[in-house]
Write a structure and sequence with these properties.
The chain is mostly helical. Helix content is 85%, strand content 0%.
């Protein structure tokens, strides 16, 4: 990337990353509170409703905004056409969910899914209003504002609403109202920045231009969403709502760190890479370098979390969730796969390889379905093993696509993981006996978690600073260097660049 592109990317990562970090911490706090106010079955009912609403979102809502971002030149007629299409899609999705709601309880074998699904259908008309605003914010790289929207909508919309509702005994509806509250606040803040304009020039030709990309993206998104949710469906259908609540929280704790980092990477790198989509050399450097930085973070985190699974569940969820411990430990091994996958996603979307992405995601969905079907006989642990293996295969499939389109090799990608692998080995060698020692003296879960995590973080920082050639990656130094230059420019220019 050019210097200006690097600075923009770093600023975007830092802005979105800081917002995501705040939301992640708040999310853990809210989850810890809700886990003590609600039952696993409550989470299971809403989880089942979210499976169906998520399918509708993947089919109707996501492709339009991504098509607007990917366009090299965006015209007013395309914006007008996208607004009309998103409104039709939003109201259409809501109507279909309301019509299907009476059958939802029978589909999952869980009572109470139908009313929750009807309420959650309101999300779609709301989101449709903000499709253009969301796309413009990302396309124009307005990441600081997006970060603020993310934090405010979660704190005000979800956290406050869900916790208060759960405190007064609303049960399942606390989670439903929290979801609706977050969407309402998020949409409102986006529309303040980019108010919708009356569509004056919608055109069939513009729709065809957007549809070529969005249809391929939607096929892949539906497949990926199916892969993410088919395990929930299988658990709900074969093991019941309480098991779904337990599995869902274990999966959430595993996926949240990687998903948040991955979302930052996609939100920042996709629009940035789209502007460089014809420069494969820079794309290759961004992809392989990004993979090395992701591995440097997520390989050690996943390994340490797998060791500390008992303490993570005990501190964050409480004793009624102890069945989630082993599934969480197993799933933690796959954290790096989920995060690195997002880099491959960004590359594939940036160059328009959405159909090649789509068939790989359908293969992933089939693998997860097989994993749940084969594994459920062994309970949640069997499901977790199968899903982790499927995540690893999906990482390889998508990495192969990304390497092919940017002209890089598997050997380059393997080398990018060498230093992170070495760092992970020494952290495991230190964290394992330390955890055993803390448990042997009956230390509280919170104390064990704090001591081991602080020690692991200190050891990691020391290894990277003292032996960077062994335990770090060149891209981390470049990232820090660009960040320093960016800060220096900001100081000289002043807050408004004057």
């Amino acid at each position: 990337m050019t210097e200006s592109a690097s600075r923009t990317t770093v600023r975007g990562v830092m802005s979105m990353g800081s917002g995501t970090l705040v939301v992640s911490v708040l999310r853990l706090g809210v989850l810890a509170i809700l886990a003590r106010l609600l039952t696993p079955a409550d989470f299971g009912v809403v989880g089942a409703a979210l499976i169906l609403s998520g399918v509708a979102e993947a089919v109707f809502m996501r492709g339009i905004a991504e098509a607007l971002i990917q366009r090299p030149v965006l015209e007013r007629r395309q914006i007008d056409t996208a607004l009309v299409a998103s409104l039709v899609a939003g109201f259409g999705a809501a109507s279909l969910l309301v019509l299907f709601a009476p059958y939802a309880d029978d589909l999952f074998g869980i009572e109470g899914v139908a009313p929750a699904l009807r309420a959650l259908s309101l999300v779609f008309p709301l989101n449709a209003l903000a499709v253009i605003a969301r796309a413009k914010l990302r396309r124009d790289l307005e990441f600081p504002y997006l970060a603020r929207v993310e934090v405010i909508s979660y704190v005000v919309g979800y956290g406050a609403v869900a916790v208060i509702s759960a405190s007064v005994g609303l049960g399942v509806w606390a989670l439903v109202f929290g979801t609706l509250g977050r969407t309402t606040v998020m949409v409102g803040l986006m529309l303040v920045k980019h108010p919708p304009q009356f569509p004056r020039h919608p055109a069939a030709a513009a729709f065809r231009e957007l549809f070529k990309f969005s249809s391929g993206y939607t096929l892949g998104e539906l497949a990926f969403y199916t892969a993410q949710r088919v395990d929930d469906f299988g658990v709900a259908r074969w093991l019941g709502p309480a098991a779904l609540g337990v599995y869902g929280r274990a999966y959430q704790l595993m996926a949240d760190p990687g998903d948040k980092l991955g979302a930052v990477l996609q939100n920042v790198l996709f629009p940035t890479m789209a502007k460089l989509q014809t420069d494969t050399r820079r794309l290759a450097g961004a992809y392989v370098g990004g993979a090395s930085v992701v591995a440097l973070v997520m390989l050690p985190v996943g390994a340490v979390f797998a060791i500390l699974g008992d303490e993570v569940i005990g501190v964050l969820l409480g004793e009624q969730w102890l069945d989630a411990v082993t599934p969480f430990k197993i799933l933690a091994v796959g954290m790096v796969f989920r995060t690195s996958f997002n880099l491959s996603e960004s590359v594939a979307k940036a160059v328009g390889a959405v159909y090649r992405r789509a068939w790989r995601q359908w293969a992933y969905a089939i693998l997860v379905l097989l994993a749940v079907w084969l594994g459920h006989a062994h309970g949640l642990n069997g499901v977790a093993v199968g899903v982790t293996i499927a995540m690893g295969i999906n990482f390889l499939l998508m990495a192969g696509l990304a390497l092919r389109v940017v002209g890089a090799s598997w050997l380059e990608l393997l080398r990018a993981h060498a230093a992170p692998g070495r760092l992970t080995v020494i952290l495991v060698a230190a964290a394992w006996p330390m955890t055993w020692l803390m448990r042997s003296i009956d230390a509280p879960d919170a104390a064990t978690l704090a001591v081991v995590l602080i020690a692991a973080a200190t050891l990691a920082m020391g290894a990277i600073l003292l032996l960077p050639r062994v335990f770090s990656v060149p891209e981390l130094s470049r990232l820090v260097s660009v960040l320093r230059r960016t800060n220096q420019v900001d100081v000289v220019a002043g807050p408004e660049g004057s």
